[in-house]
């Protein structure tokens, strides 16, 4: 079921990091387009610009779908 009349897929993009001791930290919360390489790429580039060092990355979508 569509919840809006717009064709775009607006979303809240959240990046969560896991520390070596198991703690999780929120690294970024931004609005963007869901399933958009451009939106996610801009968010990751921003993290690098702010000083995030190279990391091991796993990408997951917790959305169950419809």
Structure described in brief:
By secondary structure, this protein is α+β, with helices and mostly antiparallel strands. It is built from 1 helix and 2 strands. The chain has a two-stranded antiparallel ribbon.
Describe this structure as you would to a colleague:
By secondary structure, the chain is an alpha+beta fold. It has a domain at 10-49. The chain is 20% helix and 29% strand. It has a two-stranded antiparallel ribbon with strand order 1-2. The chain is globular, with a radius of gyration of 14 Å. The chain starts with 9 loop residues before the first strand and ends in a 17-residue tail after the last helix.
Features of the shown structure:
two-stranded antiparallel ribbon, alpha+beta, 66 residues, 2 strands, single chain
Radius of gyration: 14 Å
- What can be said about the biggest beta sheet? 2 strands, antiparallel
Give the strand order, joined by hyphens, for the main sheet. 1-2
First-last Cα distance: 7 Å
Q: Spell out the helices and strands N to C.
A: EEH
The secondary-structure class comes to alpha+beta
Total count of helical runs of at least 4 residues = 1
Query: How many β-strand stretches?
Result: 2
Q: What is the percentage of strand-forming residues?
A: 25-35%
**What share of the residues lie within helices?**
10-25%
Which consecutive residue ranges, at least 5 long each, have pLDDT under 50?
Answer: none
Rounded mean pLDDT score: 79
